[in-house]
Amino acid sequence: MTGDRHPPTRGTSLHVAASPPADDAPPGTATGGPPAVPDQPVLSPDDGGSGSQATRLVALAQERYRVVLGSDGRPYAVDQTGPMIALSLRGRDGLRTRLATAYYDRFGSTPGGGALADALTVLEGAAGTHDPEPVGLRVAATVDGGIVLDLGTADGRCVDVDAHGWTVRDRSPVLFRRTALTAPLPIPARPGDLAALRRLVNVSDAGFRLLVGWLVAAFLPDIPHPILVLTGEQGTAKSTAARLTVCLLDPSPAPLRSAPRDVRQWSVTASASWLVALDNISTIPPWLSDTLCKAVTGDGMVDRALYTDDDVTVISYRRVLAMTAIDAGELAGDLAERILPLELTRIDPGRRRTDAEIAAAYDATRPAVLAALLDLLSQVLAALPAVRVAELPRMADFARVLAALDTVTGWSTLADYTTAAVDLAAAVLAADPVADAVRRHLGTVGAWTGTAETLYAQLPAPDPRPRTWPKSPRGLSGALRRIAPALRAQGVAVDFTRSRDIHRQRLIHLAYDSSPNQPSTPSRPSTHPQ
Fold first, then answer.
1. Which helix (H) or strand (E) holds 148?
2. By C-alpha distance, which of 151, 146, 121 is closest to 58?
3. Which of 13, 21, 272, 301 could form a cystine bridge with 25, CB 3.0-4.6 A?
4. Which top-rank group of organisms is this from (predicted)?
């Protein structure tokens, strides 16, 4: 019946009857249709609908890539014949884009979006059947204690560093992932030249040695790193120094960034680079202070996954952080024990150079400076197992790296670091109204023990009260806990205990300590590894 005709559904093929061949037509041809190819059936990419396309896409992926589950819980694809780069399945320049291109090259048509989504879902499931593999971002550790630096080049070259030296390799022994913020590093060139870097940053000699120690430690992915805070008055080229420092290890199209608005924006900022530098920081809200502390230690933050009711996502980033600020004391707070402050000196007007001159000098010396840092890293790796430090500060792993650096160079970076920590503690106390009130109170009473409620009533509050002044006894107790390390570094003992009576009240004990903490010094290296 003519009224029952329907258009062909998706996934079906239209078969058009060909006219009989003319008497003079060559064998194998038919009038009214395309030439027939004997014994070679034409495979249309659309045969079978999107399901067929998805199957072909999965086959293409399995032919060219292996799927892995990264140590961060994300699925990746690795080109079986290309560099050791872990490609995201759906992100920028990821497997989705490459599969679509490969499909067009093979079949001459573009795959549908639904087919691509189905294929990637299958590949995600396949990745989940494997044990997680470590995936580095710019730097990675090897199983034998070495370090691999991803040079960020298109061919996947890297630098392999161990206690015996370093070598540029064409193929990395470990997987790396890259982002839009991963820019290439220059190929390091021997001989190394640290003096070239010294001429570009206006810090003291002790400050320069600490900067070198911080850079060497930044190659180590498995330790906490102090936050480098470049301070100084206006016109001391803080931003320029931060940019040069960042680009020595982890260059990026955006080496300096503004402070994030919230935790989600921070997760985007931190996920894309190994070294994150924040520029022109004047104040740090409490949430950002906590977030930066977690980025130093590698602690995670749990949040609800998007578009779900019962799933969660874990944001866990250990990063190397730097920032520029006018005054470190104004922004320290909880970060005081995790900060490495370096003050830049004023630049004489007669010695100022243009940005173009600095960039030209920097680009010419980067290969030699990188080689010098790699030389020091290799020597530090060799010296670390024998290093002992008599009294470790909060950033214990970083202190051991400085002690190893002092062993191979004869410098005194560890002593300079602990001295800077004491000076920073003094700056924190000078800027903190609660710390100032505690010291004034102790100057009157000598020593004090009691509850937070009693202390809140007795502590002399400044007039007018600043916005940061605690609004309750509980807030005062929390403020004391945050500044307790800085107070102890300045000779004020702060202890939190409970009374011995049946009430078991929470007590605070404040007193001047007759023996304030002194800077730690590295002990002589031992012949036995730690």
1. strand 147-150
2. 121
3. 21
4. Bacteria
Do 167 and 62 lie in a common domain?
no
Query: Of 337, 393, 335, nearest to 518 (Cα)?
Result: 393
Long-range contacts of 199-202 (CB under 8 A, 24+ apart): 199/361, 200/241, 200/244, 200/358, 200/361, 200/362, 200/365, 201/241, 201/244, 201/245, 201/344, 202/236, 202/237, 202/241, 202/344, 202/345, 202/346, 202/347
CA trace torsion 195, 344, 226, 143 (10° rounding): -20
C-alpha–C-alpha distance, residues 220 and 146, integer Å: 9
Residues 252, 338 within the same domain: yes
CA 526 to chain centre: 33
Residue 299 is predicted with a pLDDT of: 67
Q: What is the span of the domain harbouring residue 478?
A: 432-512
Predicted pLDDT at 520? 38
Domain-terminating residue out of 143, 177, 211: 177
Q: In the β-sheet with 447-450, what is the strand arrangement from edge to edge?
A: 447-450, 506-512, 492-498
One-character DSSP codes across 267-291 = HHHHHT-SEEEE-S-----HHHHHH
CA distance 190 to 370: 9
Separation of alpha carbons 245 and 255, rounded Å:
9
For residue 448, the SS3 value is strand
Domain total in the chain: 4
The verdict on residue 164 lying in a domain is yes
Query: Which residues of the chain, if any, have pLDDT below 70?
Result: 1-51, 299-316, 328-333, 514-530
Residue 357 lies in a domain: no
Q: E strands along 163-287, which residues?
A: 165-169, 175-177, 227-231, 256-257, 275-278
Give the H/E segment covering residue 77. Answer: strand 75-79
Q: Write out the DSSP string of 286-340.
A: HHHHHHHHHHHHT-EEEEEPTT-SS-EEEEE---EEEEE-S-GGGT-GGGGGGEE
Q: What is the pLDDT of residues 251-267, one digit of tens each?
A: 999 999 988 888 888 88
- Could you say which DSSP state residue 199 is in? T
Report pLDDT for 270.
86
d(CA 214, CA 208): 10
Largest CA distance in the chain: 121
